[in-house]
Amino acid sequence: MTQPNPAPGQDIQEEQLNKAIEELRGVLHEDGAPAAGGAPASAAGGPKNLGLIMNIPVDVQIVLGSTEMAVSELMALQKGSTVALNRRIGEPVDVVVNGRKLAKGEITVLEHDPSRFGIKLTEIIATTKPA
């Protein structure tokens, strides 16, 4: 199957995704201190430290939406109840890593396993830390 020519902004989006992935690697440092000179960890600490960092487990959540309800409504929920979320079908979902919203994406069916779904990243959110 041939792919259509990428849209003019697609190269920019791919560059932003790559930059965000590098930022995500920096987020793994809990103290928030960047590597020497702002360089990636591999340049500052050598390949051995990069291996340690890359094996740190992180909590990744895909947030479909949220809602607020009174405790009485919550207690009334039972099997078969429906909870309306604050998002509509087709709106992007949030990708949250260790409690920080890092990206947005769209739900997609996995090509190699149509019984499962995944997330296609469509936007990377700037991850600047407060001063």
The CATH architecture category of the largest domain equals Roll
Distance between the termini: 48 Å
CATH topology of the largest domain: Surface presentation of antigens (SPOA)
Number of self-contained structural domains: 2
CATH secondary-structure class of the largest domain: Mainly Beta
Radius of gyration: 19 Å
Average pLDDT metric: 77
Would you identify the CATH H-level superfamily of the largest domain?
SpoA-like
Question: Which strand order do you get reading across the main beta sheet?
Answer: 1-2-3-4
Order of helices and strands: HHHEHEEE
Instruction: Give the CA-based shape.
Output: extended
Helical fraction equals 25-40%
Number of helices: 4
**How many strands appear in the DSSP assignment?**
4
What's the multimeric state? single chain
Unreliable residue runs: 29-45
Q: What percentage of the residues does DSSP assign to strands (E)? A: 15-25%
How would a crystallographer describe the biggest sheet? 4 strands, antiparallel
Structural class: alpha+beta
3D structure, described in words:
The chain is an alpha+beta fold and 131 residues long. The chain folds into 2 domains: 9-57, no CATH class; 58-131, SpoA-like (Surface presentation of antigens (SPOA)). The protein has helices spanning 10-27, 41-45, 47-54, 71-76; strands spanning 60-63, 93-97, 100-109, 117-124. The longest helix is centred in the first third of the chain and has 18 residues, at 10-27. Mean pLDDT is 77; it is low at 29-45.
